Fold:
Amino acid sequence: NAGVMQNPRHLVRRRGQEARLRCSPMKGHSHVYWYRQLPEEGLKFMVYLQKENIIDESGMPKERFSAEFPKEGPSILRIQQVVRGDSAAYFCASSRLRTDYSNQPQHFGDGTRLSIL
Amino acid sequence: GQQVMQIPQYQHVQEGEDFTTYCNSSTTLSNIQWYKQRPGGHPVFLIQLVKSGEVKKQKRLTFQFGEAKKNSSLHITATQTTDVGTYFCAGRRAGGGADGLTFGKGTHLIIQP
Structure:
């Protein structure tokens, strides 16, 4: 079984450009979570999505960041007009059921390392 | 908002020594999960604790959930070089709320042969 697939593994952007990070959840998983990790830090929750719906975006900056999980295709985390402070590793996780109700573990992808020049 | 604190941030041990990391939440948790992340890797789920006072073992690893469901610990007996990595606890606030986990900053385990 394929795990959570994230691409690209590494992404370099110049300030002001857009960054698009993709995440395909594990087969049979319909719940996707995005986290950001700074060096030597823990993971910070950004957004939780179910197919075609944003369930919780309380951890996502109000400006420049957006996320979607369309009916077909991967989940996309989009960062517009990137700044140096956006440099981080972005991890996607998926679960089969809603973890709040079912205490399901989350399965993580390998992450996208975003570097802003 | 909910905060999850982990100590120590770094722990150096000689191979064969024991290791413990502690996790404390500012709020009561519905459950706590532990993850391990190798350098350059992604977090890998280790275990979940749900019940007050719960203790679970995985070979040399022992996980505990406090009676008040606000703290937890991970203890590794007789560490091996394969145990190197960062150990994160992650909790979800009791009573619902955000579905995302709140992670501690992790404890980096460094093992000297």
